[in-house]
Amino acid sequence: MNLSNLTTEKRNKNTFGLDEMSVSQALQLMNEEDKKVALAVERELASIEPVIEAVIASFNKGGRLIYMGAGTSGRLGVLDAAECVPTFGVEPHMVVGLIAGGEVAMTTAVEGAEDDLKLGAKDLENLKLTPSDTVVGIAASGRTPYVIGGLDYAKQIGAKTATISCNKNAEISKHADFPIEIDADAEFLTGSTRLKSGTAQKMVLNMISTISMIGIGKVYNNLMVDVKPTNEKLVERSKRIIMEATGADYEVAQSYFHQADEDVKLAIVMILTNSTKEVAKEKLIKAKGFIKKTL
């Protein structure tokens, strides 16, 4: 294994003497390095776009978005998948995060898991991968065997494949339909890819999941209208979303929120179209979940 040519493994000339800096100096320098991440992601927007289009197509066919990775990359995928459930009201099986070594690897390193070429394929096989799914392999180094094995299996099945790496000419890019390569320069702390690489990956994952959900009607204007009100804060946020979307006052929003069985989108359509709950449901089904198409 030769890591010498990987950007993510190179020493950052700007942070030499890091152990001699004051806290203030280290903070300022780390902030300067982090500023490079958004610009690096910006340079790859054209590569990210077809991934999102593939995910939207998968969702419209009843397929899934499946992230897979090891270590920090795997954890970020699991995190993004988990957050889609309360934010967009989707079932947990619609966006899935796989990490080499399984759930225990979320908090504890599982020795050798990321180097197992067959494990990625096995994990996807256990998910009963279909051609309607899209698999996104995440690896800062761009060479993780677990991810490569999974991508190759996905291609055999006929699923769409994408990758997110933080090195140019990454090995995993050769195994994907839609490779994304984010080069944010050497890490602040040499080889610590949970830093700039992790930030870059999280930004791209945010784009993929959020804009894909917009593409299937989970957003009205810039409001997350399929939010699940699973706690007191989200209940109040739900009422505020209804108010923002319809211009209704708090009492009206609260009334429709309860009439709609705490379904924010349904309450909005009931108000905007002056419909009963049953009629509003029919309108949403006909409009495939897009509020603006019901109006």
Automatic annotation (TrEMBL):
Stored CDD domains: SIS_Etherase
Catalysed reaction equations from the record: N-acetyl-D-muramate 6-phosphate + H2O = N-acetyl-D-glucosamine 6-phosphate + (R)-lactate
Protein's recorded name: N-acetylmuramic acid 6-phosphate etherase
Matches recorded under Gene3D superfamilies: 1.10.8.1080, Glucose-6-phosphate isomerase like protein, domain 1 (3.40.50.10490)
HAMAP family hit by this protein: MurQ (MF_00068)
Any one Gene Ontology BP term: amino sugar catabolic process
Subunit annotation: Homodimer.
UniProt-listed InterPro entries: Etherase_MurQ, MURQ/GCKR, SIS_dom, SIS_dom_sf
Function: Specifically catalyzes the cleavage of the D-lactyl ether substituent of MurNAc 6-phosphate, producing GlcNAc 6-phosphate and D-lactate.
Domain SIS: 55-218
Note: A lyase-type mechanism (elimination/hydration) is suggested for the cleavage of the lactyl ether bond of MurNAc 6-phosphate, with the formation of an alpha,beta-unsaturated aldehyde intermediate with (E)-stereochemistry, followed by the syn addition of water to give product.
EC number: 4.2.1.126
Molecular function as annotated in GO: carbohydrate derivative binding; carbon-oxygen lyase activity; ether hydrolase activity
Top-level taxon in the UniProt lineage: Bacteria
NCBIfam families documented for this protein: N-acetylmuramic acid 6-phosphate etherase, PRK05441.1, PRK12570.1
Active site: 83, 114
